[in-house]
Amino acid sequence: MTIRAATRKDLDTAVRELIYRSCLRLDEGDFPGWLELCAPDLRYTITAYSPEIRQEMTWLDHDRDGMEGLFKMLPKHNSDHSPLTRHASVYLVEVDEERGEAAAVTSVVVYRTALDGGATDLFAVGKYFDNINLEGETPLLAGRNVRLDTRELGIGSHFPL
C-alpha cells in the first residue's frame, strides 16, 4: 500500500512505527539503519530551556550530512559507551494528507546501563517533536527536535537521543 492510498488509521500506525523503529535503531547503535528512516532534508536538534540562565539552549543542530558526520566521528570521541535504552510513548499524531506530512509528539525516557557493574540509571527525560514526510512509499523522519527536561547529561554524551 502506498501512503497516498492509506487510510487515516494506517497513516497513524505507520508514523508510530517509524518513531518506535527509530528508537530501536538508536538503541542498537545502528546509525546507518537510523539514517535509512530519515528524509534527505532531515533536521535534527536537541534543545532545552534553562531557568538558571532564562534562555533556550541548543545542544545539537544538524542536517542529514551533519548527522552522518557525527556518526562517523563517534568512535573517535572520548565518550561513555554505556548502552542507552529509549522508552517512547507516542502521545499525538496529526496527519496533513494534503501537504503529505505528519507531526508527532512523543514522550521519551532514556536509561543508561553502566558497562562496569550493569547498574541502570535514568539518563534523560524529554519529548520528541517530529515532522514526518509522507510523500514516498514509507514515512520518513524529516525533522526531530529532542526537547529535554534534563539539562545535565555529563561528560562524553555525544550520542543522539
UniProtKB/TrEMBL annotation:
Matching Pfam families, A to Z?
Ring_hydroxyl_B
Query: What UniProt keywords apply to this chain's record, in alphabetical order?
Result: Oxidoreductase
Instruction: List the GO molecular function terms.
Output: oxidoreductase activity
Record bears the keyword Oxidoreductase: yes
The family database entries (SUPFAM superfamilies) matched by this protein are listed as: NTF2-like
Q: Which InterPro entries match?
A: NTF2-like_dom_sf, Rng_hydr_dOase-bsu
Q: Give the similarity note.
A: Belongs to the bacterial ring-hydroxylating dioxygenase beta subunit family.
Name recorded for this polypeptide? Uncharacterized protein
Which organism is the protein's source? uncultured Rubrobacteraceae bacterium
